[in-house]
Write a structure and sequence with these properties.
This protein is α/β, with parallel strands linked by helices and 257 residues long. 30% of the residues lie in helices and 27% in strands. It has 8 helices and 12 strands. The strands form 2 sheets. It has a 6-stranded antiparallel β-sheet with strand order 1-12-3-2-5-6, with helices on one face. Strands 7-8-9-4-10-11 form a 6-stranded mixed β-sheet, sandwiched between helices. The longest helix is centred in the middle third of the chain and has 13 residues. Bound molecules: adenosine-5'-triphosphate and magnesium ion. The site of magnesium ion has 3 residues, from α2. InterPro entries: AAA+_ATPase, ABC_transporter-like_ATP-bd, ABC_transporter-like_CS, ABC_transpr_LolD-like, MacB-like_ATP-bd, P-loop_NTPase. GO terms for molecular function: ATP binding. It comes from Ktedonobacter robiniae.
Amino acid sequence: MSIVDNDPTNYQLPASPLIQVEHLTRIITNRTQKTTLLHDVTFAVPAQKLLTINGPSGSGKSTLLNMLTGIDKPTEGRVVFAGQELKAQGENALARWRGRNVGIIFQFFQLISTLTAFENVLLALELGGGGGLPRNAWRKRAQDCLEIVDLGSFAHRLPSELSGGQQQRVAIARALANNPPVLIADEPTGNLDSKTAYSVFNILAGLTEQGKTVIYVTHDSQLASYADARINLLDGRIVSAHGTQAIVTAKQEEVHS
Ligand SMILES: Nc1ncnc2c1ncn2[C@@H]1O[C@H](COP(=O)(O)OP(=O)(O)OP(=O)(O)O)[C@@H](O)[C@H]1O
Ligand SMILES: [Mg+2]
């Protein structure tokens, strides 16, 4: 085991990661067998940076994201978000917490096909309570979020009238609607060609300059390498990390499935 921090600049930053993942283990037990999906995963998510979580299919990326959003609970270990342990909260409190703190972006966009881009973003404001804005400011907020992703003039198009990359940008606008500090994206560009994927990656990376912390899951190691901070997973273990503090629990060649 070793503490990794290859980035001297990052090392100088105050030790205040927004999210701290500590010794996270997830074991699923059914009648015949016990499967360990995550083994002792420890890392910090630096605030206002984009962190990529990279690894091949089945390495535990989505399992880990579900722990970060409180959708699933660890078997051992904990996730501490801005000083508060997620596990300690009940389901309703967690759902409220998620609505305020995390915007989630999915691989297949999951826009509502009968609503325009604008209405998809507005719906997020209605469901999330507007992120503290009064109701009469929500329409402007929805339009502003579309402007942030450079889709201001596409507001009245249906998802079927937009390209894949544009649909994903609408999904980013929707995730921004309630102004959460953290955006979490699970393979957001897995369904896009590499050029469009890169532009979506850049939009998300650019949001760190507006104070957002972005967690970006991808199996694309090339794309992951553009991030300032990254961890690599294999078979539920961290095999390498860069630009963030993480405990590497296995070397790539030591991992057996
Ligand atoms: N409920 C479950 N019961 C047993 N095994 C599971 C369960 N859910 C996931 N797994 C296994 O856990 C491992 C990690 O799954 P996970 O979905 O986290 O992978 P991933 O890295 O997100 O993969 P992908 O890139 O394909 O999305 C896989 O081997 C998967 O088959
Ligand atoms: Mg996955």
